[in-house]
Amino acid sequence: MTLTKSLLLGTAATIVAVAGAQAADLPSRKAAPATYVKICDAYGAGFFYIPGTDTCVKLGGYVRAEYQYTPATNINSSTGALVSSLASTSATPKNLQDTTGYEIRGRIDVDARTPTGMGVARTFVRLRAANTSGIRNTSITNVAGYTMSSAATTGITIESAMVQWAGFTFGVAPENYAMMPSHFYNGNPWAGFPNGMKQIAYTANFGGGVSATLALEDRRDHGYGGNTVHNAAQGTNIVANMRLDQAWGFAAIHGLVGNNSYYTNASGQAINGAADFSALASSTTAVDTKTKSAYAIGATVNVKLPMIAPGDQLWLTANYVDGALGMLLSDGGLSNVNTAQNKRMLGGLVRVDSNIVATNGLSAAVDNVTGWNVAGAFTHYWTPQWRSNLNAGYIEINPPTQTQTTMLAWGKGQLQVYTGSLIYSPAKDLDIGLELQYANLKNHVQNASTATNTAFNTAGRPGLSESNWTSKLRVERTF
Asked: pLDDT band for position 432 (50/70/90)?
């Protein structure tokens, strides 16, 4: 037994030794070390390194659910020729209109940054998708002569898609003239460009919080093409601003210089409207292009007010424009206030304004529409969880005098807008808010007789003074 036991132990030892020697010759089966996401704190919270690179990326976005109610009023649409509005025997009756609507949004943000020898190279993309219905639907149909909203629609918008490097910005980025906040999203009495602006821009920082930006921006994104057919070859506005950013807030002056183009016939007469252009384009009549210069100038100030409550802020702005109405109010006309409402907030006679108008029908006389505004916004925190926003503004638009006294035309438009909200934030980046907005528009008509003014205000027709209110319930979660 002793001999047998010794032989068995010796054989086992030999097998183990041989197996160990052979294993030493085989590739190692040890697992590769795990690659963990590394935090990148060079650009603030939320950034992390893309594994294997020196690029830092941050992901974000929000989901918003919004419900709106607006009392219905009779509407009579106009494309700029008031005669057609007067000739119409009835407006779109309020009992055919939506008074409620939903808008559900989802937004995704991707911010990627890489250090270079000439500063950080940044790529930023912000995509917004929305599903809308009812009064929030931007798609409308014509049923038996009445303009009504259609079925729910879904669309995707590129709010930003830009490359920034060495002070330059290329792509779709925030507009460089408008500096007021968007507490109520495109329903404010000042310029707003929620869909971004196609541009090439350069920003210089001089130290001490002083900076200046010079940009070439897509004129069509500024809106208010109105009833004048624009020329695609003249598509750039020059926008500049100078800012002083300090601990107390910021102060800025901003301006725009550009032009509005229009087509003329062989006699040099302005082609006043798409119908006139179509008639000429289908013939052998020569068509030429002329331009009319435009400009805008304004100032905006933001003051932080921690002495009232942490987070409190005040914004003030004032602007004057000549042929650049987009710097006063979002595109869509005075009575729209919010173009997402299908010109439905105020109702009444829907005003359509353009940067330039022909002052004598089919005429060689073309002039700019001017305007100005003053507005303010105030944010107050009642508690860390409860805050409110208050906006107020006055906008005045002044079309040129119509030299053809027999032609009805828009005159001065005077718009007042007052908006307030109360927002509850039970957790960080979770907002539940109620918004209320009231607006009043006073329209004026040039070359209108007493009978004409009476016609605007008779039963079944919209009046020249219009007022309405709208309300929204919003739930938003940002991440």
From this structure: very high
Q: Which candidate, 186, 222, 156, 188, places its Cα nearest to that of 354? A: 222
Residue 337's CB is within 10 A of a number of other CB atoms, namely 29
Contact (Cβ atoms closer than 8 angstroms) between residue 270 and residue 366: yes
Domains, the chain, ranges and CATH? 59-478 (2.40.160.10)
Element spanning 113, H or E: strand 100-116
pTM for the model: 0.85
The C-alpha atoms of residue 448 and residue 464 are separated, in whole angstroms, by: 12
E strands within 382-429?
Answer: 386-398, 409-427
| Angstrom distance (rounded) from CA 136 to CA 101 | 5
The whole-angstrom separation of Cα 183 and Cα 136 is: 17
| pLDDT of 91 | 60
| Cβ(294)–Cβ(259) below 8 Å | yes
List the alpha helices (DSSP H) in 148-289: 274-281
pLDDT tens track for 417-428: 999 999 999 999
Among the residues of 100-178, which ranges form H helices?
A: none
Question: 109 with 85: CB under 8 angstroms?
Answer: no
Q: What residues pair up with 240 in beta bridges, in sequence order? A: 214, 255
Dist CA 287 CA 264 (whole Å): 6
